[in-house]
Structures are given as structure tokens and as C-alpha cells.
Amino acid sequence: MPWFSPVTCRGQSSLRFPSASLHLPCIQIVKMEGVQPLEENVGNTPGRRFQRNKLLLVTSIIQGLGLLLCLTYVCLHFYTSQVPSQYPPIQSIRVQFTSCENEKGFIITSPNQDEIMKVQDNSIIINCDGFYLISLKGYFSQELSLSLHYRKGREPLSSLSKVRSVNSIMVAYLAFKDKVYLNVTTHNTSCDDIQVNGGELILIHQNPGGFCAY
């Protein structure tokens, strides 16, 4: 049998010795709460919290810039779709001539009805002032003389004598109300008997934005 016996206090413990009736003070047992492990305390140091907050701030800034770029792109796309073009479409036309008539000469026709420039009375109508790139080509079954005109009383843009083919490119200044047309002269045959292969005339306006009238 032990020479002392434990005595339990309220929330405390003490030792009583029977021989001397000696009591030791009660020892209070305190439970420590709210103390975090060392590893967690190290993770919550001010330096680490600052780095984490800095990383979150940089991420938020990048996301904000991305959203701003997206909104800017959408606004610009919407604005450009609503604002009309500053300049009108470029004046151009491509016509073909595949047959010849004694009274009219080569008959020019436009295969594309949506061309900006139009054909009227077997001539190409000029609506805008400026320089035009002009391409003329074709192959003929008979020898002939061919000239390209733009205004009555003026020298032709091009004049070829006694040829069976033409393939030329030039640049000429044309003005409003000019009319570009072909004049053909046959030799020892009628125009109706001449066959044309690959007859083509192209006009392209080189400096849009100038004077135009329709």
C-alpha cells in the first residue's frame, strides 16, 4: 500500500501523506488551446503573406488588362462596321470583245453586271478623274488596224496598224465624261468575217479619292 494517497480537487490534483498529514498544494492542469504547430506559424509569417498578396495583385491586374483588351476589340469592331468607308470603291472594269460588226466595229460587253464602271453605246464611261491602268489584248483571224480612243478630236491612246494580235499595257489620264472605245479598220475583208480570240480590255483607276460624278 502506498504511503501517500492522491486527492483530487476540482480541476486540480494534490498529494496527501498519511503519516504527517501533509498536504501538497493542488496542481492545476491547464489545457493549452490556440497554439498552432511550428510549421503553420512559419507559413503565416509576414514575408510569406506579403508574397502571396503580391501574387494575387499581379494576377488581378493581368485579368483586368485582358478584359480591357477584349472590350476594346469589340468596340473597335462595332465602330468600324458602323462607319462608312472614307473613299468610294475603286473604279475598274473588265470587258470582252469577241465579235466585229461592219457598222460598230468590235462589240464590247461586260461579263460582270456588278462592275462599278459601265458600258454604254459600245463605250466605257469614265466617271472619275485620274490616271487609269489600261490593258488591251487579243488575237485576230485577219490582219487589221486597231486604235483605242477616249475623246473625239484627241489623239488615240493606242494605235496599231496591220496587226493580227495586240498585247499592250499603258497608263493614261482620263476625266469625267470621257468614253473609251475601240476603232477597227480591216484590209481586204469585212469586219463581220474577222474572228477574235481572247479579246479583252481592262481599266483600273489608280488614284481614288479625286473628283467623281455619276
TrEMBL record:
Domain THD: 74-204
Membrane topology (UniProt): Single-pass type II membrane protein
Keywords tagged on the record: Cytokine, Disulfide bond, Glycoprotein, Membrane, Signal-anchor, Transmembrane, Transmembrane helix
Keyword Transmembrane helix assigned: yes
InterPro entries: TNF_dom, TNFSF4, Tumour_necrosis_fac-like_dom
A GO BP entry: positive regulation of type II interferon production
Subcellular location as annotated: Membrane
One GO CC term on file: extracellular space
GO molecular function: cytokine activity; tumor necrosis factor receptor binding
Residue ranges crossing the lipid bilayer per the database entry: 55-79
Principal location: membrane
Family listed: Belongs to the tumor necrosis factor family.
Quaternary structure, from the entry: Homotrimer.
Functional description taken from the UniProt entry: Cytokine that binds to TNFRSF4. Co-stimulates T-cell proliferation and cytokine production.
Protein name: Tumor necrosis factor ligand superfamily member 4
Taxonomic path: Eukaryota, Metazoa, Chordata, Craniata, Vertebrata
